[in-house]
Structure to design on (398 residues):
């Protein structure tokens, strides 16, 4: 059976309708909320960091329960020093110190030397110390009336002082520091100013000697023009020789001018000085504390019982007061003096008076007799100690 229903035409293609998109961009208010939220988080983190940073800076460093020392050597950077402090357990962390250095532009302020870090110090305090001149100071007293050889022993024993003169003889050491002043001799004796010197780790014995030498030369040259008229001393060096003898004869401040007067008058009259300290110096290591008559008769350029005038060099390091006494001695008529046994002297005009004083003070000595004034012991650190003058008890006679 035939289906007479006409065939229907094919279906026409359907047209696609666009699907509405409900995903629209966030509004401006949403963006603002997100931005503000991010800024809030950043501000909170910054606040936490600042509080933590400032708190950390205010806290004592963990390794400074007690005072510590740190040595900063030439060429080292702050970063290297701080890393070493961390390795030594003084710093807990290097990052905090690096931030502090950068924020305060302190990278170039590091000083060379040895520093003391007090217990309980904070990081800013430690960095301030390392960038300052507050280096650890040592002091060494080099007393009046001591010799160059004694000075070298004191310098060799001084703590942390760099020893550059080891193995050198006295003459070689002196040539290393000697100034260009025309009046100087080749001997180092007397050519250094006795005083208490301050130095730092890294300083050398040569640098300290150079300072002492320049001070002595400057002192003598400043005092020489104000010397007494018609003084029987031709050069500043002769004044230094006489000053060294005065220094060795007495350490009593009130007597230096009197003793200087005695020696100057004896030089003016052509008398021998006849002073024991010069003889002792000439004996050197042979002197063992007892000056004998044989010593006084010995021919040597320092035996002022045998020679006229001054010995060839100073016999010790004279201080300012002794130099002033040599250049401006006290006027008077005394020509003799003898040790009284209490560190002072009896002065006499005539030989008869002098011999009477000898009988009184030398032949009948008290139990606590001493010829040298006992000055207060100088305060000093390390090797700085008083070196007592070696002086016999004989009288000065014409």
């Amino acid at each position: 059976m035939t289906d007479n229903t006409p065939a229907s035409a094919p279906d026409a293609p359907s047209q696609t309708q666009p699907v509405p998109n409900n995903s629209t961009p966030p509004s401006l208010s949403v963006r603002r909320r997100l931005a503000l939220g991010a800024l809030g988080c950043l501000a909170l983190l910054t606040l936490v960091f600042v509080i933590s940073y400032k708190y950390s800076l205010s806290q004592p460093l963990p390794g400074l329960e007690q005072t510590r020392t740190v040595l900063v050597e030439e060429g080292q950077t702050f970063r290297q020093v701080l890393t070493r402090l961390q390795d030594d357990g003084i710093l807990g962390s290097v990052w905090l110190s690096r931030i502090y250095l950068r924020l305060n532009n302190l990278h170039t302020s590091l000083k060379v030397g040895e520093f003391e870090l007090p217990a309980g110090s904070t990081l800013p305090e430690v960095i301030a110390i390392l960038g300052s001149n507050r280096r650890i100071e040592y002091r060494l007293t080099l007393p009046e009336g001591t010799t160059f050889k004694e000075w070298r022993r004191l310098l060799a024993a001084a703590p942390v002082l760099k020893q550059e003169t080891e193995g050198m003889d006295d003459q070689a050491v002196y040539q290393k520091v000697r100034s260009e002043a025309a009046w100087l001799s080749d001997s180092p004796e007397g050519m250094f100013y006795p005083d208490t010197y301050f130095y730092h780790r890294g300083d050398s014995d040569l640098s300290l000697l150079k300072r002492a030498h320049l001070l002595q030369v400057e002192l003598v040259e400043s005092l020489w023009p104000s010397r007494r008229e018609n003084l029987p001393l031709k050069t500043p060096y002769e004044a230094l020789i006489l000053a060294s003898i005065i220094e060795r004869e007495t350490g009593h401040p009130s007597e230096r001018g009197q003793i200087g007067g005695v020696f100057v008058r004896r030089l003016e009259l052509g008398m021998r000085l006849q002073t024991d300290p010069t003889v002792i110096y000439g004996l050197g290591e042979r002197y063992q504390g007892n000056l004998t008559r044989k010593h006084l008769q010995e021919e040597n350029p320092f035996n002022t019982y045998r020679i006229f005038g001054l010995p060839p060099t100073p016999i010790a390091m004279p201080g300012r007061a002794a130099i002033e006494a040599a250049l401006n001695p006290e006027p008077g008529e005394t020509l003799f003096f003898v040790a009284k046994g209490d560190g002072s002297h009896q002065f006499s005009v005539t030989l008869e008076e002098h011999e009477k004083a000898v009988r009184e003070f030398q032949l009948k000595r008290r139990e606590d007799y001493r010829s040298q004034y006992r000055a207060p012991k100088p305060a000093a650190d390390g090797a700085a100690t008083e070196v007592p003058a070696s002086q016999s008890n004989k009288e000065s006679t014409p």
Summary: The radius of gyration is 42 Å. The chain has 13 helices and six strands.
